[in-house]
Amino acid sequence: MNKSISPYCKPPRGHWWLRLAGMSVLVNRRGCLAGLILGMLATFVGVAGLSIGTPLLSAGEVLEALAGNGDPFNIFMLHELRLPRLEAGLLSGAALGVGGCLLQTLARNRLATPGIIGIDDGATAFAVASIVAIPTSLAPPVLALLGAATAAALAFGLGGGGSRGYRFIVVGIAIGALFGALTSFMLARTDIDSANLAYPWTVGSLNARSPSTVVVLAVCLAVCLPIAKVLGRQLQLLRFSDAVATGLGTPVQRTRVAILVVTVFLTACAVAVAGPVGLVSLIAPEVARHLTGHRGVPIINSALAGALLMIAADWVGRTAFAPVEIPVGVITAIVGGPYLLWILLREPRVTGR
């Protein structure tokens, strides 16, 4: 944002000047179009998710039920089952998309996502421990936050502060494997009832999510998304060496810590709602970069892409094999697994082109 831009100054090619009350903002046209497309697709999939299922509802019946009118069964179906899942999917997908975008750009590697460097596994292990191993009054979401923070601190500390992308990823994979083994050990040693209660924390699912947890995620996203947008501008400078970034006025180490803190909060709250659906944070930022097509850090479009991927995967898992429901984590793994192999097998390339 700039106050000193002349009203007669032409914007760079592919951009608009947005002026209001003497202020001006340079906006990328393709980025805006990409955000519009992602938003429209998410709206379409969301409406389809509310309509298509068992029973099948028309658009009129959906609107009537959302307003609290019409068939009582339709009202119950929308307000108690389908709408909460849609809200949980939109919010958790957006949080994972933003977290993935921040970490990938920080480490300059598309494999550096919360799921791959162990943050998801840490959150899951602590959440499962609160159910099957530790007699505590703390809710699983609180333990999930502590687990995510522990895994992130270990990866950040042992992985060179996030500046060494390859080492950061390798250390994160090792930490994730340790937390994954701990989760498996706890589930193997507990009784069948506790294991069933902890199962949703080991595989991503949007079924029967706690309303209070969804509210916490909504608040977290509302606070962290503007912060992530501001940090995204500083991330563009972190693509240079630390000396260059410092010379340009960026507090390098403080920015890295801030990015990690925001990612931890977003990931922990998302895992508390949906479980470890880490591949969304791998795919969503790349979709946003492809559609945006410029060297910036597409925070908003990553959030939109993550939300779209999450609700689309949940919709497919809920309806494709009905009455059997496939968890959203399984659907994203089926899609994200081949994509991960494609990334590993293709020629290496720095993130944030």
Structure description:
It is a single chain. The protein has 353 residues and is mostly helical. It has one domain: ABC transporter involved in vitamin B12 uptake, BtuC (Orthogonal Bundle). It is built from 13 helices and two strands. It has helices spanning 29-51, 59-66, 72-107, 119-132, 140-158, 165-189, 192-198, 211-238, 242-247, 252-274, 279-292, 299-319, 328-345, and strands at residues 15-20, 23-28. A two-stranded antiparallel sheet has the order 1-2. A hairpin with a 2-residue loop joins strand 1 and strand 2 (23-28).
Layout of helices and strands:
Layout: E1 15-20, E2 23-28, H1 29-51, H2 59-66, H3 72-107, H4 119-132, H5 140-158, H6 165-189, H7 192-198, H8 211-238, H9 242-247, H10 252-274, H11 279-292, H12 299-319, H13 328-345
Antiparallel strand pairs: 1-2
Helix pairs in contact: 1-12, 2-3, 3-8, 3-10, 3-11, 3-12, 4-5, 4-6, 4-7, 4-10, 5-6, 5-10, 8-10, 11-12, 11-13, 12-13
